[in-house]
Amino acid sequence: MKKKIIAGLFGLLLMQAAFAAGTHYEMRVDGLACPFCAYGIEKKLKAVDGVSDIKVDLNKGLVSVNMAEGKELSEEQMKKLFKDAGFTYRSMKKSPL
């Protein structure tokens, strides 16, 4: 009986983590050429509330970001962020974590 209760509680914890996962964004950006470019983008994105786990792929021109539950990134917000950083924003894909 104890094992069933523990297994049930563990299952509830796993389900809660799945529902509170947040959102993954992948943005295509032109102009990323060096590690300093990646650092500049990371610095700008870290200032956005809810952003975590930033990855920049210079070869593919992709910037990946995870957002906390209840937080979202908008196309306009990203266009401005990348333009202010000196890069050209192209597109954004959104998927659940």
Topology:
Layout: H1 2-19, E1 23-30, H2 35-46, E2 51-57, E3 62-67, H3 75-84, E4 88-96
Task: Tell me what you see in this structure.
A 4-stranded antiparallel sheet has the order 2-3-1-4, with helices on one face. It is elongated. The protein has one domain (22-96): Alpha-Beta Plaits, CATH 3.30.70.100. The chain has 3 helices and 4 strands. The longest helix is centred in the first third of the chain and has 18 residues, at 2-19. With 97 residues, the protein is of the alpha+beta class.
How is this structure best summarized?
The protein is an alpha+beta fold and 97 residues long. 41% of the residues lie in helices and 31% in strands. It has a single domain (22-96), classed as Alpha-Beta Plaits, CATH 3.30.70.
Structural class: alpha+beta
Distance between the termini: 34 Å
Q: Which percent band covers the strand fraction? A: 25-35%
Shape: elongated
